[in-house]
Amino acid sequence: MDASEFRKRGREMVDYIADYMETIDKRRVTPDVQPGYLRKMLDSRAPKKGEEWEQIIKDVEKTIMPGVTHWQHPRFHAYFPAGNSYPSILGDMLSDAIGCVGFSWAASPACTELETIVLDWLGKMIGLPQIFMHDSGLGGGVIQGSASECILVTVLAARHQAIRELKNRFPFVEDGVLLSKLVGYCSKIAHSSVEKAGMIGFVKMRFLDVDDNYSMRGYTLANAIEEDRKLGLIPFYVCCTLGTTACCSFDNLNEIAHVTERENIYLHVDAAYAGSAFICPEFQHYMKGIECVNSINMNPNKWMLVNFDVSAMWVKDRHVLTSALTVDPLYLQHHHSDQAIDFRHWGIPLSRRFRSLKLWFVIRSYGIEGLQKYIREHVRLAKRFEALVRNDSRFEVLGAVTMGLVCFRLKGRNHLSQRLLRAINDSGKIHMVPAMMNDNYIIRFAVCAQNANEDDITYAWEVITTTTEDVIASVDI
Ligand code: PLP
C-alpha cells in the first residue's frame, strides 16, 4: 500500500469506524457464536500472494464482527468500562504512525517528555501530593500496560527494598532464605492480579477479611502483621484497593497507612477503576492518607475515555522502583542519562509505545471539566439504576453505590440470580457479569458506554424485570 492508497483507505476506515460507533446499538451486544467459529470461516494457511484491500475489509464485516463483543455498546454493562473516544483513537493512530520505541529519553525525547508532563497533569488532577510529580525531582508517574503490571512492579520494588535492608542486617543469610520470610497483604476481594504478583514475585500474599462494608480495615491488617511477626515472617508489602472489582468498595486507606508507616512496610494503592473519579473533588476523600503511600495506580483506559493500554502509576521515590528494575547494557546507554528519565527502568518491557499522546489528546479535548462531567453522569445513572432496583421488593442491592457500579441480586438463594443472569446474557439484549460478595452471588451492573443515558438504564431494567418474571415462573424455589 502506498501513501495515496493509504489516504483513500484511511478515509474509508475512519468512515467505517464512525459508522460502527453510530450504529453500534443495532448490533447484538454479545456475539452468538461457538468456540472455533472463526477457524471454520478463514483459510488455514496464510495467503501466498498479497490480497486486495477490498477483499480483506469485506471479511471484517463477514467474519470478524460476528465474533465481537461490543464493549462500546450502550447495552454493555459488564466488567468496568473500556475507555474509548475519538481523540484517543486519533492519538493511537498518530502513535502508530510515528512508530517510535521510547525506552529511553534518547530513543525519542518527545515520547518520554510528554509522558512525564501528562502524568504530572493527571497526578495533579486526581489530587496527588506534589512529591509524586516528576517536577518534584523525587517521585513521578509512568504509563504501564495494565494495572496488573503496575501491581507486579510495585511488588518487585518492595521486595527489592526489603531484601536490601535485610541484607544489611543479616549479610550472611542467603537471599532465598530472606525471600521465604517475606509476606504481603491485601483484602480477600482485592483483584486477582495481587495474588498473581505474589506468585510471580515468589512471595507469600495473605488475603485479609473485610468489614461489613467490604472494606479492609487498619486493625485487621495490624493483627495479621502481629501474628506473622510472631511466626518469624517479615511483612513487606500491602496493597490497598480503592474501588474493588467485585463491588467498588474502598479499603480504609487512612487507617492502613497508619499501620504501614508504623511498621515500615511498602504501601501500594490500586485504584484501577475508581481512580478516574478522583478528578472530581467530591471523591477525593477516599484518598485520605495518600501522602503516606509509596505508589498508586489508576487506569485512564477504564474510566477516563482513553483507549487501552494506558495504566498510570505514580511513585513517591523513583529510586525505589528503578533500583529494582535497572539493567544497563552499553547499547541502551546515552550521554543524557544523568538528567533525563529512561522509562525502561520503570517497568518490565524494554519497548514502549507513544501512549501519552492519546492521554494528552483526551485531556486537552475534554478538559478537566469535560472529564468530570462524564464521570458524574455515570455516577448519576448508576444511582438511577439503584433506585429502580430498590423499588422492586424482589431484589436487593449489596454494598454502597458510590461510583458507576450497582451490585444487586434476587432475594433468596444464589441459583435464582444465577439463572437470571444466564437468561439475560443468553438473550444478547444486555450484558452483565457476576461476582461473589461474601457468600452471595451478585449481578454487577456497570455504566460503561461513553454516552450512556436514561433510556439505556430504563431499557436494561425492562430486560431485567421481564426476564425475572420468566425465571421465577420456571424455577422451583
Ligand atoms: N485492579 C482492579 C481494582 C481492577 O478492577 C482490575 C480490572 O478490572 C485490575 C486491577 C486489573 O486491571 P488490568 O486489566 O489493567 O490489569
From TrEMBL:
Keywords for this protein: Decarboxylase, Lyase, Pyridoxal phosphate
Gene Ontology molecular function, alphabetical: carboxy-lyase activity; pyridoxal phosphate binding
Keyword Ligase (UniProt): no
Modified residues (N6-(pyridoxal phosphate)lysine): 302
Biological process annotations from GO: amino acid metabolic process; carboxylic acid metabolic process
Any one GO CC term of the record: cytoplasm
Cofactor(s) recorded in Swiss-Prot or TrEMBL: pyridoxal 5'-phosphate
Family label: Belongs to the group II decarboxylase family.
Protein name, UniProt field: Uncharacterized protein
Organism this protein belongs to: Owenia fusiformis
Full protein: residues contained: 1 to 477 of 572
